[in-house]
Amino acid sequence: MFFAQTSLDGESGPQYGSACGKPSMKTDEPKRIRHVMLMVDPPIPARFDGIMRHAKERGWRLTVANRLVRAPRGWDGDGAIVTLRGDPAVLRFVEDLSRRGIPVVDLTLHRPDVALPRVIPDYRGAGLLAARHFADIGLKRTAWFSVEWSNVQRLFFEGLADGMAGVASGSGGPAGPPARFVLSRLVSRSRLDDPDRFAAILGPHLASLPKPVGLLAYNDEEAARLLGLCLDAGLRVPDEIAILGIGNDAFLCENQAVPLSSVDDELERCGFLGACLLERLMDGEPPPTAPVLVPCTRVWARQSTGVLATENPILRRVLERLCSRLANPPSMAQLAEEAGVSRATLDRIFQRELGRPAHAELLRRRLIRAKELLSDSALPIAEISRVCGFCNPGYFAVAFSRAEGVTPRRWRRGETNVNKRERKIAPPNREKRHGT
Length: 436
Known about the structure:
Rossmann fold
């Protein structure tokens, strides 16, 4: 058992008082040090970074307990942040704290049967985001992989399935539900980490999937495991199997033979907002009536999904030409001539394969590229507009706002239209509340 304690009474960083339910102004009153237990496993750095942002400002004294074989005895602090799964020691500890009226915040939804205040990623939203990413690269067939199957994996999978159903209905093309591979249902639990058994069982399943296919893994570690299996089996990534993880562990994703794309599940923000919620609960405020959902809004695209996936060779060549010349693409007549078909035939191919005309696909690709530049570069918005082929910044702003619900400038600042769901955790206006 690992058991460590640290005090965070040093100089505070940026002020987050308004987000955490307390004014950040200085007072002459002595600051009460709160003792907070962290039982967060696995110890993903992003979660701890988020908790640290709040804890350092508030001067919390943190006790960290991981890999428990029993609940800590005699601990009598002010609150706890946990990731509640199947560990009986953690469950007993949480039940004991609840009986004593000590607030606990859970950062997962693996145990929905246990009533706790929670701040969690929007798991279904992450699955929908993965489906959208696969659709962006032209994939209509997808699959899911995880070692285990729990409530969280189920929500990710349901989001993927719902998203792909929407892709199918919008494109008019065939797209069945995602295939699902859960390793614990294919091999005995004693052999879950056996690489030979893993390859022998899962390899034929992957080889038999209709290609091209997008494969979503529960986390980046499992995505890396899949990548190794695909490469060993001679399956081309991303051309045959495009692999997408969840978590965006940059060290793991970028140090693979084929760098892995990944959905950002916002664990740092979850950790920070979870700490904010715990602060409010320790202040005596009532818990939220439902889990606070933190939106997942971004896929970090790398080589493992860097493909324009379509089985139609004509459409594939045309899309490659469009994407290589977004700022000044050839006319549809030129593209049709280069592809050796009539303009009418090319229009029918776009509509049949993608469910939209060529001009709509060109706009969609331009907006995808614009979002990449807004996130990953410091280019002025006017320059991004020009690079992506928009006739002027005003039209770019209108087109972007119609697609995303916010202007490019607000999107760059992280103000997406789905962020409204985070307002559940926003503290009440204390001055107004006490003034009424």
